[in-house]
Write a structure and sequence with these properties.
The chain has helices at about 5-20, 30-55, 60-80, 85-100, 105-125, 130-135, 145-160, 165-185, 190-205, 215-240, 240-250, 260-270, 275-280, 285-290, 305-330, 340-350, 365-375. By secondary structure, the protein is mostly helical. It has one domain (about 5-20, about 30-375). α7 packs antiparallel against α8, α7 runs parallel beside α9 and α9 (about 190-205) runs antiparallel to α16 (about 340-350). It is globular. Its main location: membrane.
Length: about 375
């Protein structure tokens, strides 16, 4: 079983992310793992720039250099730490990296095995995990995070389950595996992951392979999903309580999540044009996300608002246009050929409407892995 060096690096990243988000471990023991993942992201940024030069693509090289300069300038103007550039540059340049390399069959098999092991571990540890997590003062991994990681691996396993079973048994394996996953998401009370899994299943069923070769439509979908990420919070705030009560009942959680307060405060601050364009700055995060008198600062619970917080409308437009143009380009060259991973990528974009996983070092490259596999997964696999 041979695996390419660049595939091995991505596999190690996935394993470390799974290790960090495992339900087994105490968060205090994993600071070094998180730091290592953060360094990995900088490496992916550098390798993305290297591949742009290697591919002799002048337009991409100039674009990436301009993006880096603009992002750094925005940070200096609004006071956001340059460390935060790791996130948006990984989302953009890391995506270029994963869509510029090729993948071996061994990588598909190994990353699927990692996913199955993670799913089984989550299943074994699921009884009373949520209750124990609350009782511990939230000192172990957040159940929502575990749910999201299970969802990521579900997309991978659903794409490559045929590598492990015959065609006759494939249908039954799909049913058993996805039923197990749904059970895990309910036991961990991961409300966002439950909705995202439903979106993935619907997308999986409704999307036709023809969409892979429709670059203009994919461009519109990508831009639309990103823009909707800034609109959904407004709808959430205005949503009738009865609807949220019904959704909340699937997890046993109360309707109140604090998101409506965080988003309401944030949108109010954007009334100032300069703040909207350049972003309030990460240093002002506490003003929006501090909910109780416990000194804790929460996340924005929305990927797109978090980008605007740190990099303003400028950063949001750069992010949206780059990923949309990249997907358009890949489709136009007719090398997109795995609609399961592509629908998984779109699912994670939707998941970002109520979660803030872009800002976590252990999640940010996983999006890029999905779009990378959407390119090469169903080609003639290299052994």
């Amino acid at each position: 079983m041979l695996i390419k060096k660049n595939n091995l690096i991505l596999l190690i990243y996935v394993i470390l992310s799974a290790f960090y988000t495992s339900p087994l471990f105490d968060l205090k023991l994993l600071d070094y793992v998180l730091y290592l993942l953060f360094l990995f992201n900088w490496c992916f940024i550098l390798w993305g720039i290297f591949y742009a030069f290697k591919n002799d693509n002048v337009k991409v090289v100039i674009s990436l250099m301009l993006i880096i300069v603009i992002i750094f300038m925005v940070c200096m103007l609004n006071g956001t730490s340059l460390r935060q550039c790791n996130v948006i540059l990984t989302l953009i340049i890391g995506m270029y990296y994963t869509t510029s390399i090729s993948y071996s069959k061994a990588f598909y098999q190994l990353v699927s095995v990692v996913g199955l092991v993670y799913n089984l571990l989550a299943l074994i540890k699921s009884p009373n995990y949520f209750v124990n997590w609350e009782a511990s003062g939230q000192a172990t991994m957040n159940p929502n995070t575990i749910g999201i990681m299970n969802l990521f691996f579900a997309i991978i396993v659903n794409s490559y389950i045929h590598l492990f079973v015959s065609d006759k048994r494939k249908k039954y394996c799909y049913l058993i595996y996805n039923a197990m996953l749904l059970y895990i998401l309910f036991v961990y009370r991961s409300r966002t992951s439950q909705v995202a899994f439903l979106v993935f299943v619907l997308t999986f069923i409704l999307l036709k392979r023809d969409i892979l070769n429709k670059p203009k439509l994919l461009f519109i979908i990508t831009c639309g999903l990103s823009i909707m990420g800034t609109i959904v919070p407004l709808l959430y705030i205005a949503m009738p309580k009865q609807i949220m009560d019904w959704i909340a009942n699937t997890t046993g959680k109360s309707y109140f999540s604090g998101r409506e307060i965080i988003w309401g405060r944030f949108y109010t601050s954007l009334a100032d044009f300069k703040t909207l364009v350049l972003g309030p700055g990460l240093w002002r995060k506490e003003q929006y996300t501090s909910l109780w008198d416990n000194g804790r600062v929460y996340s924005m619970h929305n990927n797109y608002l978090d980008i605007i917080l740190c990099f303003g409308l400028i950063g949001f437009i750069i992010f949206t246009l780059f990923i949309a143009i990249r997907i358009y380009s890949l489709s136009k060259r007719q090398i997109l050929n795995n609609y399961v991973c592509l629908s998984g990528y779109f699912t994670f974009m939707i998941l970002g409407y109520t979660e803030n996983n872009f800002s976590y070092a252990f999640f940010v490259m996983l999006y890029n892995v999905l779009i990378g596999l959407a390119i090469y997964a169903n080609r003639q696999m290299e052994v």
